[in-house]
Amino acid sequence: MKRIPTIIFGLFLLSSCTPVPSTEIPATQLPILAIRETAVVTTVPVPTATSIPCDPTTTDFCLVDWTFTFQNPLGSNSPLTIARSYPYGSTENGQRDPHRGVDIESRDGAPVYAPAAGLVIFAGRDHKRIYTPWDDYYGNLIVIQHDGGLYTLYGHLSQINVAVGDQVNGGDVIAAVGNTGVAIGSHLHFEIRTGGDGSDFFSTENPELWLPLQSGMGAISITLDGNNEEKILRNLVIIRYAPGTTTSEKKYYVSTYPKEFEHSQEDFAINSLPPGRYRIAFTDATGLYERIVNVEAGKLTQVVIQLK
Known about the structure:
Elements: E1 17-19, E2 28-29, H1 32-38, E3 62-65, E4 102-105, E5 111-113, E6 118-125, E7 140-146, E8 150-157, E9 159-160, E10 167-168, E11 173-176, E12 187-194, E13 204-205, E14 218-225, E15 235-241, E16 248-255, E17 268-273, E18 276-284, E19 287-295, E20 299-306
Parallel strand pairs: 14-20
Antiparallel strand pairs: 1-3, 2-6, 3-20, 4-12, 5-11, 6-7, 6-10, 7-8, 8-12, 9-11, 12-13, 14-17, 15-16, 15-18, 18-19
């Protein structure tokens, strides 16, 4: 059996839980050995692990208080709107490479802020294929190393305001939104990587479980627990019911993570959902699976579905 979707560093192990067009910038990079020898990185506020009285493997769902690690990279006064057409892990129905981050909607030239303290280890044009298998995939790129083996990447930038070796604090302006590299339209590609030197293209986490919720909103994580440890893409429908009824108010058509995302303990996650009652449903060769859950403001609804 898989572990429940705790996310590394204990993101889910929380204290309260109840059942229920741009200038090309020369690329520079700080050697990883130099980083390890000289860098002093301020601690990222990762939650402390505690025991969870609610076990999502034995109940329909658990509600846990939301604690986030990173601030909004567009600033606390800007909306954090993640493009639903190409979320984390999505292949856009097999038309694109699986997405390793999220696209945050924003206008060209909007400021980009460091979401936590860290050290800039890359700032420039993505020509060396250090962080991706393809040339100029991210266009103008910044990579920040944070404490605890975390790295954040900022792609498609129109302007870079920091240099390799700069120590930044949360809230510092580091860049401007753009559409360089393979971007289609202006937006911020935001990515979280773990371990090593941050160059592993496949070692990512879903930013929707690390970024803050919009005010008054909640989130859902779903883990499919079965004998096969390989991720199998499944199409899900998540229905939000109108308050006090079983009438559909909104439908979200989403997909679980495909192969190459086996490092992720959850199989799907979505941030900033309105509070209410939801139905999660999908079918596979073994039949229909469904679950009725609640979403509450400021909380994460944790769901584990046992596969047949």
